[in-house]
Amino acid sequence: MTNTAKILNFGRGNFAEQERNVADLDDGYARLSNMLLEAYSGADLTKRQFKVLLAILRKTYGWNKPMDRITDSQLSEITKLPVKRCNEAKLELVRMNIIKQQGGMFGPNKNISEWCIPQNEGGSPKMR
Fold this sequence. Notes:
The chain is mostly helical. The protein has a domain at about 30-110: Winged helix-like DNA-binding domain superfamily/Winged helix DNA-binding domain (Arc Repressor Mutant, subunit A). It is built from four helices and three strands, in the order ααβααββ. The protein has a three-stranded antiparallel beta sheet. It is elongated, with a radius of gyration of 22 Å. About 15% of the residues are buried.
């Protein structure tokens, strides 16, 4: 009679095989003022609007440009949203003056006082 043990691998080994995805400033970065970052954080935007806004920031400030030609398919690739939804969110951001549009070029509006964001009343709707 022998006493042997069977060793089971529960997926915690083989760390060398896992690809690591680590952000590094050497791979590029977008300069963004703290005031804009705080204003974006406090804005009552939908998830789609926020994802499209971040994608536009990446395509403009990420390349040190104030504005750029950005297609809906480029936004879709970054946000993982359908092209139609990207277009809708982009146009909503333009109507709110969070994003500027000049012809086919888009970019962030740095003048926060021009933004027209619908205000959330706060709290949940009252039950009747």
